[in-house]
């Protein structure tokens, strides 16, 4: 087969075979690395509140539908989508006529990180990889809790960002582009605004000003991108790009702004480097390929036959690359499509690696390429650092729940969420992967120490019916959810139910101290049951309070079974009250 070059595919060149796919042959020359001084594809992250339209924006760009497969409409696994230069040029052509921007970036690689606030660690991992972030804000709701948390994260990581002010089509009376116009590509937002009624534009302007005010409260000078004259100052001047993930309006503006910013201000950061930087996103079993790993290659190059060290559940994994696969441009790594085979892949790129012994690889850890002459034993401890640090953060000596998650990033996020002051759920053990009988036995140990914590909080992991039956037998409660905040809701409801049961059980033995005196002439019945009028001198008199007479050698009168005031039944009487009681 004749080889073809795709210079837009990865910041340099990727050598492919014409017509090759996962079903085809994997022949192909290794190619040459990109020339020194070239720039790689910028890596972008998408952050924001739940339901602001993060994944739908990407769907609109690549014209696919990944979000339909997401749990609760929230992105739960990191995805990677690559947008080639040609696609960007086609979408931005209508607004590049005045300023013919030369596209020097080979494309854009977008990592779609989960949007919920619980995923701060996953987003931290994403932000450390990304060159520029897209913060998605719902124009109808403004800055929501997870949005503000994302802003704080971006500040900490010193990551520049632009704002996609999404859902502009929700403005009352919004006129969507006609079919003939949309055939030319998505419509730029300023053209859309010219087609709106005055009342719609007024509502848009009001909501835009509200968003600018909200960002000002966070310390940013946010303005519509066409009014931002100082793009060089990322720290305080933020560009707002109105968009609609429903109609695609504003997406050309967003793509053009991202390209401008990365080319003008990040050329040094994007310059191709030889050192390999790569992170495992996901471990997948693919029919016909076996177990594979999805990887984002940030810098350097990976070659077929490279010797790799990976972090595994049971220790470091030493293997060799059998195949390097990439999705076709404008597709996304999580979606099953035929793959292109490569001999060499250069950064930045999302790719799939086939190799032996990948079953226990931990997602979210780094890929280490063993160079000639390096000591493998020295590198093994290095590659296990991420996993060790997470497990070491769990206090095994204290009482707490057992936590299980599908990936290291998800486990980090769950542990951080449970340890936050607002949640404060103690954790005794943590693990990765499906729930087995040994996990049930480990959680059952809590019956001897603190029975209320004899449970497993499982995020996005599986449990067989046999293990579920064993959990019931061992009296271990297992909560399984695909969304972290629902997992916490289950835990909170369970603990509230336990508290109510304990409260009811303690009702008979709980004593609220009080001092009462019998009102003279108010003993209405001196046999069982006693019916007397009393004055509360100190404390609070409650139904169920046991009474005695200290001056009569602590004569026990029994418990209060009823309190009345002027014929009205009461549960308690405070200091100074005159009531009738029955014991």
Summary, kept brief:
The chain has 583 residues and is of the alpha/beta class. The chain contains 15 helices and 31 strands. Helix 4 links the parallel strand 6 (132-138) and strand 7.
How would you portray this structure in words?
The protein is an alpha/beta fold and 583 residues long. The protein has 15 helices and 31 strands. The strands form 8 sheets. A 7-stranded mixed beta sheet has the order 4-5-3-6-7-9-8, sandwiched between helices. Strands 10, 11, 13, 14, 15, 17 and 18 form a 7-stranded antiparallel beta sheet that branches. It is flat, with a radius of gyration of 32 Å. It starts with a strand and ends with a strand. 42% of the residues are buried. The model is unreliable at 1-32, 70-78 and 114-127 (pLDDT under 50).
Number of helices: 15
- Radius of gyration, in angstroms, nearest whole number: 32 Å
Number of strands: 31
N-end to C-end Cα span: 98 Å
The portion of residues forming beta strands comes to 25-35%
- Low-confidence regions: 1-32, 70-78, 114-127
Provide the structure class.
alpha/beta
The general outline is flat
The residue fraction in helices comes out at 25-40%
Spatial arrangement of strands, main beta sheet: 4-5-3-6-7-9-8
Largest sheet: 7 strands, mixed
Integer average pLDDT = 80
